[in-house]
Design brief:
The complex is a heterodimer.
Chain A: H1 7-13, H2 15-35, H3 49-53, H4 57-90, H5 94-109, H6 112-123, H7 128-135, H8 149-173, H9 177-185, H10 190-218, H11 222-228, H12 235-243, H13 249-278
Helix pairs in contact in A: 2-13, 4-8, 4-10, 5-8, 6-11, 8-10, 8-11, 9-10, 10-13, 12-13
Chain B: E1 6-17, E2 20-31, E3 35-39, H1 46-54, E4 61-66, E5 69-70, H2 76-79, E6 82-84, H3 96-106, H4 111-124, H5 140-153, E7 158-162, H6 170-187, E8 190-195, H7 198-204, E9 207-212, E10 215-220, H8 222-227, H9 232-237, E11 242-248, E12 253-256, E13 259-262, E14 272-277, E15 282-286, E16 294-303, E17 308-314, E18 317-323, E19 336-341, E20 346-350
Parallel strand pairs in B: 3-8, 3-9, 6-7, 7-8
Antiparallel strand pairs in B: 1-2, 1-4, 4-5, 9-10, 11-14, 12-13, 14-20, 15-19, 16-17, 16-19, 17-18
Classes of the chains: A mainly alpha, B alpha+beta.
């Protein structure tokens, strides 16, 4: 092989990584086994009861809320990430590039609790925004931006933004300047070039980034817990409630399997979308 | 003065990149329907000039006049010049037909007329059957032709090419040059091509513009540039001439290879001169005939088939000689030869 590592050697070197993944796969299997257990507290016998018990309007709302919030947050994060990726690739000065990179990465580096308290200080009922607006006489009662869906959305967008930016940066880097100039020499305005050339060429990278961000947001736990309170029951929070106050282990496992199912479905669906849209069609 | 045949007038264009002067006061008038080659070594500013004409770079000073209209400030997509890029830049997410039709689509031409024009162009480039192929499935020569067809589909007033053949192998490049020239004449489109390959420039150009260090050194028909180079750089760059010291002008004569040679010169007396003599304009005879010509020794000799390539040492100067009959005259490395230079083929310049 020309890339330095023979397959055998590469396999040997990836053994530690494979070993590290094994317990995780084991846990997945364990959760699956628990989700078809006849008992709620221990693994015993087989039953599909844990799944049937989930067929309630309450759980349905939780699934819907999870998909909805994850989808909207992904959409917002992508819209914010594309221009950021372009700015990041256009920066010439290494210092400016490093500063912007660190700023974008900050949500990944900073402890989530610190971030959540930051949001509360800023947007909470007696936070900076509300006191300022009230001080200026613009509003009478504080705006409720936290501990509801808005708060969770804000948190999801913020935490997932870096995951969106960096894959897009690498596909923006792959764009050739000559393709854009060719379009413009043929008469395409900047918008037409963006629509007909840039976005289609970025499409695989964009869909890849979107599927990562969606999976991350759908399985979010800390953000809905800290910024949504008990009112925003995304699946992560719902699963915890089943375990902690209710001790319904098999139900929690079944809900976990459904969450994994949804995420996998979205990943497979987007990779299928990439495949069919990059196939050529004649207009 | 602007005549009706001046299609593009490059009027005093300069370009600075920071402190670097890439182009200095370029003046050039390009005739309607002509094929102009910008030729020069890398870094001479030829690509920058083409990009300014296309609108991808803005000139620091100067104007571009197309048919007398100032287009200096016009953005590239309003100029509508067809361009073929060095990387070809075919759109990878479109088929061949979609690539060629893209410019027509932007001009609001309907689907049926578009398809007809695409089919017509595919016939012209002799690839009628590849319309629905993705561009990734094409060979190098096919991609080349598709890129040319895409640029010509919009019937551009100017056709610009940036070293488009440099990625092809020598044989394919040769046949593409002929094809490109024929296409250009068929469409009658005013064409500007950038190249560093002097053979390519000679093959294609009606007018050859030789550039160096951001300035035009000579602009004329290829044969003129070859036979009467304006300076030693042009003589050396085009077809590797022998540049030899020619002494000072005195009495209308110079010293060439240690012999006086009278030349019709516009250079004043006592100017130090340099002479350029092309390898194929030197005749060798077996030494002995006392005809007053210089005598040299053969240092290197190689029979290339149609001609023989030699290096001859004459009075300390190493001359490259291309001879059609050296081998048959029994010459060999070490032989003494008479070196005869035809004064008609000697170009002289003030020594730099």
């Amino acid at each position: 092989m020309s890339i330095g590592l023979s397959r055998k050697r590469a396999l040997a070197f990836s053994l530690p990584a494979l070993l590290a993944i094994t317990p995780f796969l084991g846990a997945c299997f364990y959760i699956f086994r628990f989700s078809i257990s006849a008992e709620t507290g221990t693994i015993q016998g087989f039953s599909i009861r844990p799944y049937l018990d989930l067929m309630t309007p309450f759980f349905g709302r939780s699934v819907w809320l999870t998909v909805k919030l994850a989808f909207i947050a992904t959409l917002i994060a992508m819209v914010l990430a594309v221009p950021l990726a372009f700015v990041l690739t256009s920066l010439r000065s290494p210092l400016a590039r490093r500063c912007l990179t660190v700023t974008i990465l900050l949500p990944l580096i900073l402890n989530l609790l610190v971030q959540a308290y930051g949001w509360i200080l800023l947007l909470g009922p007696s936070g900076v925004l509300n006191t300022t607006l009230r001080g200026l006489g613009i509003i009478d009662r504080p705006l409720f931006l936290l501990f509801n869906e808005t708060g969770v959305l804000l948190g999801l967008v913020q935490t997932s933004l870096p995951l969106a930016v960096f894959p897009i940066v690498s596909s923006v880097r792959g764009l050739s300047q000559e393709h854009l100039e060719a379009a413009s020499s043929l008469g395409a305005s900047q918008w037409q070039t963006l629509r007909d050339i840039t976005l289609p060429l970025l499409r695989p990278g964009l869909l890849g980034a979107a599927s990562i961000v969606f999976a991350f947001n759908a399985s979010a736990f800390a953000v809905p817990l800290l910024l949504g309170g008990r009112r925003v029951q995304m699946l992560g929070v719902a699963i915890r409630d089943m375990i902690s106050p209710l001790f319904n282990w098999s139900g929690a496992a079944a809900a976990g399997m459904i969450l994994i199912g949804i995420t996998l479905f979205v990943l497979v669906f987007t990779s299928w979308l990439v495949r069919i849209t990059s196939r050529n069609v004649r207009d | 003065m602007i005549t009706r045949n001046d299609h593009l007038h490059i009027d005093g264009i300069s370009k600075n990149f920071g402190d670097v002067k890439a182009l200095a006061d370029i003046d050039l008038k390009i005739q309607r329907g002509s094929f102009v080659c910008l030729l020069g070594p890398s870094g001479c500013g030829k690509t920058t000039l083409l990009r300014i004409i296309a609108g991808f770079e803005t000139a620091t000073t100067g104007r571009l006049l197309l048919d007398g209209n100032d287009i200096t400030q016009q953005p590239p997509h309003k100029r509508g010049f067809g361009m073929v890029f060095q990387s070809l830049a075919l759109f990878p997410h479109m088929t061949v037909a979609q690539n060629i039709a893209y410019g027509l689509k932007l001009r609001g031409i309907n689907g049926k007329a578009r398809r007809e024009r695409v089919d017509e162009l595919l016939n012209v480039i002799q690839l009628p059957l590849i319309a629905d192929r993705p561009v990734s499935a094409l060979s190098g020569g096919q991609r080349q032709r598709v890129a040319i067809a895409r640029a010509l589909a919009i019937q551009p007033p100017l056709f610009l090419l940036d070293e488009p053949l440099s990625a092809l192998d020598a044989k394919l490049r040769d046949s593409m040059q002929i094809e490109l020239r024929q296409l250009q004449q068929k469409f009658g489109v005013t064409t500007i091509l950038v190249t560093h390959d002097q053979h390519e420039a000679m093959m294609l150009a009606d007018e050859l513009v030789v550039m160096k260090d951001g300035a035009i050194r000579q602009s004329a028909a290829p044969a003129t540039v070859y036979r009467h180079p304006a300076d030693s750089f042009v003589a050396d760059f085009l077809g590797a001439a022998n540049l030899v010291d020619a002494g000072q002008v005195s009495g209308g004569a110079i010293q060439l290879l240690g012999r006086p040679m009278s030349i019709p010169s516009k250079h004043p007396e006592n100017t130090h001169l340099q002479a350029a003599v092309r390898a194929e304009h030197i005749t060798l005879r077996p030494a002995g005939a006392s005809d007053g010509s210089a005598v040299g020794t053969i240092l290197f000799m190689r029979d290339l088939g149609p001609l023989t390539e030699l290096v001859v040492d004459v009075a300390g100067e190493n001359l490259r000689v291309r001879s059609t009959n050296a081998a048959s005259q029994g010459m060999a490395v070490g032989s003494k030869v008479s070196v005869i230079v035809d004064p008609e083929h000697v170009s002289v310049f003030a020594a730099s």
